[in-house]
Design a protein that fits this description.
Low-confidence stretches: 495-500, 722-729
Transmembrane segments: 345-367, 388-411, 423-445, 466-487, 502-523, 543-571, 794-819, 840-873, 893-912
Shape: elongated
Family: Belongs to the ABC-4 integral membrane protein family.
Largest sheet: 8 strands, mixed
Protein name: ABC3 transporter permease C-terminal domain-containing protein
Helix content: 40-55%
Organism: Pengzhenrongella sicca
Subcellular location: Cell membrane
Distance between the termini: 57 Å
Strand content: 5-15%
Radius of gyration: 39 Å
Length: 931
């Protein structure tokens, strides 16, 4: 009996398994025919997957490429990025009284040591050392020269001696050996001059150059005159005055600098003729920006800091070795900008993926509605829920594979690179699971559920459903509040990398979803209000349309998806417009005027400003003095500041010609200076110094100037970038030039010029050659900023995201209309039976669809602008725009085009449906209604 029962159970189990297999096979065999019947929703799904997959792949690749290019551009456009090693000589050759003939070998050996001792992470980033052995500048007289002139002796080597063509004579040679050396003896030194230098000094081969050295006489003899074989050779980059005399400054401060070329043979003589401290050796390692990537920045900065802190790691035995570079500051500034831009892009990428996922779920819902009858039939014929889920899963996996492959192919065509699986996998997962879950749920609903007869039980069940819905919405709202709070407190770049962490990046998306749920709950009240308004019209069309809109309502998922798409669209558009406007403000913050000129101190610069102010197209021009790295006395946390001496009244007039904010505090500097030189000079100081308190003084031009703090520095101080040698100067002191001159007892010669007006560029370009000056044009700054990799890449990514979000919004409207199309068709048939014309029925359909779409769109556009206004600070847009402060919000009017497009989409859907209804005959409509 037991064996018989066991065998019967086994047979029943095999029969059940066989039946399940047959049902699963039947369901799978039905897939192709079912797919052909529902072709357009499937194509929409594949298209959305492909577009989202392509965007999710291209976005991170674009960010990575933009980050690398931004680093390289920052290094190429920043002065003093090269690594400079200064090492003194270690031997004391004067004890033996003979020339150190191995000097060239020493410096070449040191260059090899430095090159080999670089850390592995830094070695590929720098070229071989360029050696420069240089003396102090020795005064000399230029025939008929009006300017002060100096001569410097230099030896350069970058793996080989400088290549030159000899016009006269030849290379310098070593002087004859001397029996002994004394302070009274003049050691002969042979040098070579460029053709331009020889012409300026009016000397030739065999002539002596009359230089003065206060410690002993020097005999400098010209051995040859040369032309460089290649003037662009890097060996000349650090010593351009070896090729031609250079005049620095103007007026009384002008000075002509000439350099004479030493050879390896004459270099020891130059060392012996001067004191040891008057000869320096510099090894310059040019940076190779092409070898830099964003991912290596942390390691590069850390290794540079170690080198600067411990130069002995370069295997040089000299105790006074110094390593200097501004590359670390440049890389840190670039890293901050990249993190800001990457985090801003990550916010939009998260929103794009979330919106795409919502559209895919909506497409799966539309597909399930179309197949509801088929699923019910399969269930009635004995198909199990696992069999139905498995068949739908096979179809969903196929859609995910096809759409994902198309997306990766499209991404490879746009920007090749590895797949970004963290962005792509969520989209594929949504496609793979949405169809089976919704389809199984629809099939399960066909089993039928008995409603309790007890009214109290029905109410209890309703309360349970309400609690679940409220709990879900409350969870989303709490998560959105947490993300938004964290984002505002920590900033979007808090987690580092090219973007922020998931919660921070998803905060705007979560806020949009939470706000969409809230707006959806308020939609019935708005529709009731539209019904009350429609009752005031005489015709029946508006009333019927409002009644249908209230009765039909709006599906939650399409409404939330539409609000999400339009919110992120408005958010991205507002960011784009704010960045573009902020760059214009940033150009004023950075340059301070239409043109800024930084030159050496020049007593004639004030007169030049008056000449420029009278030029055509120039509004105003003013001169000022800027000194970086001035010693500050009395502050506890800062010992170096930038001192700016201005003509307060002149600058106030110049401010009136610019969009920069007024600086009324400048009036506190414009009064008459005190009669006594010991009186404190009124000063405006940075906020960091204002909180120090106590007496404060600056050591300016060897004068101790006491300060009286009367206010905070104006915004223009941010446009005065420090010189390359000054490094990072954070705090600024602004004083009156007249008061500073009185306190110091000597004139304050200007070195900076600001010019405003449409013709400022042309006037400055035509005024003088501005030798050895830095001319910064605001128009050029704007052009450079607009085309730089970070800005252009971010704008491109935002513009692409806006276009995709707009497309998703249109698809959402079409899918939502398609989901409710059968019910709307039945309603229109009934209305036509009751005598309503086809055109009036189309108007009713338009009134049924349009309110929910318009409410969702307007809510999203307003929410996006509000989010942008709240998140401007946390998104650190100023790092992208180049402003001193966060940019002001700018709302783009053209974002309303989305409202027009979505309204047009609704009208087009209604027109297509009306065209389909036009071909129906009234008899058919009556039979449908009676059926």
């Amino acid at each position: 009996m037991t064996r018989r029962a066991a065998g019967s159970a086994r047979r029943r189990h095999r029969a059940d398994r066989s039946a399940r297999t047959r049902r699963l096979g039947a369901a799978l065999a039905h897939l192709p025919r079912q797919a052909r019947a529902d072709l357009w929703p499937l194509l929409v799904t594949v298209a959305v997957v492909a577009v989202v997959g392509a965007g999710a792949s291209v976005g991170p690749r674009l960010l990575a490429a933009t980050a690398d290019e931004t680093v390289r551009v920052a290094v190429d456009t920043t002065a003093a990025s090269d690594l400079t090693v200064t090492a003194p000589f270690t031997d004391d050759f004067r004890i033996e009284g003979r020339a150190p003939r191995d000097t060239a070998l020493i410096v070449k050996s040191n260059a090899s040591r430095i090159d080999g001792a670089l850390p592995d992470d830094l070695a590929p980033l720098f070229a071989a050392p360029l050696v420069t052995v240089s003396t102090v500048r020795l005064p000399l007289a230029i025939p008929d020269g009006q300017n002060e002139a100096v001569l410097r002796l230099a030896y350069v080597w970058d793996g080989a001696d400088a290549a030159v063509d000899w016009v006269e004579g030849g290379a310098p040679v070593a002087a004859a050996p001397a029996e002994a050396w004394s302070d009274d003896s003049a050691w002969p030194v042979q040098v070579a001059l460029s053709t331009e230098a020889a012409a300026a000094l009016r000397v030739g081969v065999g002539d002596r150059i009359n230089v003065s050295y206060p410690k002993r006489p020097i005999e400098v003899t010209v051995s040859g005159v040369f032309r460089p074989t290649d003037a662009g050779d890097p060996v000349w980059t650090q010593d351009r005055d070896l090729l031609a005399p250079v005049t620095r400054g103007s007026g009384r401060t002008a000075r002509t600098e000439i350099a004479a070329l030493l050879s390896a043979q004459s270099l020891p003589d130059a060392r012996l003729s001067l004191d040891p401290l008057d000869t320096s050796t510099t090894y310059t390692l040019a940076v190779r920006s092409a070898a830099m990537t964003y991912g290596d920045l942390d390691s590069i900065v850390a290794n540079l800091a170690k080198l600067e802190a411990s130069p002995t790691s370069l295997d040089l035995i000299a105790t006074g070795t110094r390593v200097t570079t501004s590359l670390d500051h440049t890389l840190l500034a670039a890293q901050a900008r990249i993190r800001a831009g990457g985090a801003q892009a990550a916010v939009l990428l998260v929103g794009l993926v979330a919106t795409g996922a919502a559209v895919l779920i909506l497409a799966a819902d539309v597909l399930t509605r179309r197949r509801a009858a088929v699923l019910v039939r399969h269930r009635a014929r004995g198909a199990s829920l696992p069999a139905i889920a498995a068949s739908l899963l096979v179809e969903s996996l196929a859609l995910a594979a096809i759409g994902g492959a198309l997306g990766l192919l499209l991404a490879a065509l746009v920007r090749p690179g590895p797949p970004s699986w963290p962005w792509l996998v969520p989209v594929l997962a949504v496609v793979a699971l949405a169809g089976p879950v919704l389809g199984t749920r629809a099939a399960r609903a066909s089993d039928g559920r008995r409603r309790p007869a007890d009214r109290r039980q029905r109410r209890a069940d309703g309360r349970v459903r309400t609690v679940r819905r409220v709990a879900l919405e409350a969870s989303v709202a709490l998560l959105a509040v947490a993300g938004l709070t964290a984002l505002r407190r920590r900033g979007v770049t808090a987690s580092g990398g090219t973007g922020a962490d998931l919660l921070l990046s998803a905060a705007p998306t979560l806020v949009a979803v939470a706000a969409a749920m809230l707006a959806y709950r308020a939609l019935p009240a708005l529709l009731r209000g539209s019904l009350a308004i429609a009752r005031r019209f005489r015709g029946s069309g508006p009333l019927i349309a409002a009644a249908r809109a209230q009765a039909a309502g709006a599906a939650a998922l399409p409404f939330v998806a539409l609000v999400l798409a339009t919110t992120l669209l408005s958010f991205g558009a507002t960011l784009t417009q704010t960045i573009r406007s902020g760059q214009v403000t940033g150009s004023w913050d950075t340059v301070g005027a239409d043109v800024q000129v930084r030159t050496g101190s020049d007593p004639d610069l004030a007169a030049t400003a008056r000449v420029l102010a009278a030029a055509d197209g120039v509004d105003l021009a003013t001169a000022l003095r800027v000194d970086d790295l001035v010693q500050l006395v009395g502050a506890r946390s800062q010992d170096r500041v930038r001192v700016v001496a201005v003509d307060a009244a002149a600058y106030e007039r110049l401010l009136a010609t610019t969009p920069l904010a007024d600086a009324p505090q400048l009036a506190r500097l414009a009064g008459e200076p005190g009669a006594e030189t010991d009186d404190p000079v009124p000063a405006l100081v940075s906020p960091g110094l204002a909180g120090e308190g106590g007496a404060m003084s600056v050591l300016w031009q060897e004068h101790t100037i006491p300060l009286a703090v009367v206010g905070a520095t104006p915004e223009f101080a941010s446009s005065l970038s420090p010189s390359a040698s000054a490094g990072q100067v954070e705090d600024t002191v602004v004083v009156s030039a007249a008061a500073l001159a009185l306190a110091a007892g000597e004139p304050v010669e200007a070195d900076t010029l600001w010019v405003t007006g449409a013709g400022a560029d042309a006037a400055v370009a035509g005024a003088t050659t501005w030798a050895d000056s830095t001319v910064t044009s605001r128009a050029q700054w704007l052009a450079d900023r607009a085309t730089e990799p970070l800005t252009s890449g971010l704008i491109l990514l935002v513009a692409s995201s806006i276009a995709l979000l707009l497309a998703f919004a249109v698809v959402t409207v079409v899918l939502a209309a398609s989901a409710s199309a059968p019910e709307r068709a039945s309603t229109q048939a009934t209305l036509r039976v009751l005598g309503l014309r086809l055109r009036a029925a189309a108007s009713v359909a338009l009134g049924e669809l349009a309110p929910a779409v318009l409410v969702a769109c307007l809510s999203g556009l307003a929410l996006g602008a509000g989010l942008a206004s709240v998140l401007i600070g946390p998104l650190t847009l100023r790092l992208v725009t180049g402003q001193a402060a966060e940019p002001a919000l700018v709302l783009p009017w053209w974002v309303l085009a989305a409202l027009v497009l979505l309204a047009g989409t609704v009208a087009l859907v209604v027109a297509v449906e009306s065209s389909a209804r036009r071909r129906e005959r009234l008899g058919q409509v009556l039979r449908v209604g009676s059926g």
